[in-house]
């Protein structure tokens, strides 16, 4: 299956309301601490739904950045450099969670397109850093606008309670997996 088919094909749970919630995990109590009936997803259902949403959002982002003739990783690096300034390739890889080999290829592409330049670090003359050029700053503004539009498209689907629930759930997941 091609990447475009993966993005455009119907996800298993396109309508999250269609998730089969009647299969309650036997280990969970029948009622939540608030007294309401507890509906729990089985582990595999949760992962399927979470993965489906993640793939859909990444697909929308990839399609949006493709309109700017950018790949998603290029856009991620441009956003990082725009927010954080000059960075070594190792920092780019670490801070964006990108494989070091892919980082090198993407940086080479940004250099070839004239959006980035590589110079010696002022802090460690043995090290090179990558920074945006004036053309890179122009594309960075377009990338940021595109990112905001993606976020607006998603946020329009949710009401204020959903926004608050999302923040709460995201914080809970992040804090549970923080390096300790």
CATH superfamily of the largest domain: Winged helix-like DNA-binding domain superfamily/Winged helix DNA-binding domain
Helix proportion of residues, in percent? 55-70%
- The helix/strand class is mainly alpha
Measured between the Cα atoms of the first and last residue, the distance is 39 Å
CATH architecture level-2 label of the largest domain: Orthogonal Bundle
User: Globular, elongated, flat, extended or rod-shaped: what is the shape?
Assistant: globular
Task: Provide mean pLDDT, rounded.
Answer: 81
CATH topology of the largest domain: Arc Repressor Mutant, subunit A
**Can you list the strand order of the major beta sheet?**
1-2
The count of helical stretches stands at 7
- The low-pLDDT segments are 1-34
Number of strands: 2
* Binned strand content: 5-15%
Helices and strands, in N-to-C order? HHHHHEEHH
| Main beta-sheet annotation | 2 strands, antiparallel
Return the domain count: 2
Rg, alpha carbons = 21 Å
CATH class membership of the largest domain:
Mainly Alpha
Notes on the protein architecture:
A two-stranded antiparallel sheet has the order 1-2. It is globular and about 55 Å long. The model is unreliable at 1-34 (pLDDT under 50). It has 180 residues and is mainly α. The chain has helices at residues 3-8, 43-66, 72-84, 89-96, 100-112, 134-155, 160-176; strands at 116-120, 128-132. It is 57% helix and 6% strand.
Primary descriptors:
180 residues, mainly alpha, Arc Repressor Mutant, subunit A, two-stranded antiparallel ribbon, globular
């Amino acid at each position: 299956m091609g990447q475009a088919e993966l993005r455009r094909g119907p996800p298993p749970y396109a309508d999250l309301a269609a998730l089969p919630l009647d299969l309650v995990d036997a280990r969970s109590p029948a009622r939540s601490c608030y007294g309401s009936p507890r509906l729990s997803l089985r582990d595999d259902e949760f992962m399927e739904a979470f993965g489906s949403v993640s793939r859909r959002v990444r697909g929308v982002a990839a399609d949006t950045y493709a309109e700017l003739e950018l790949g998603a990783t290029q856009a991620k690096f441009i956003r990082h450099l725009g927010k954080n300034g000059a960075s070594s390739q190792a920092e780019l890889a670490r801070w964006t969670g990108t494989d070091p080999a892919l980082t090198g290829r993407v940086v080479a592409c940004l250099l070839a397109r004239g959006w980035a330049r590589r110079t010696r670090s002022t802090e460690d003359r043995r090290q090179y850093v990558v920074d945006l050029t004036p053309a890179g700053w122009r594309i960075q503004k377009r990338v940021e606008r595109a990112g905001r539009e993606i976020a607006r498209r998603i946020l329009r689907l949710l009401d204020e309670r959903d926004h608050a629930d999302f923040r709460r759930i995201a914080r809970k997941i992040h804090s549970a997996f923080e390096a300790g």
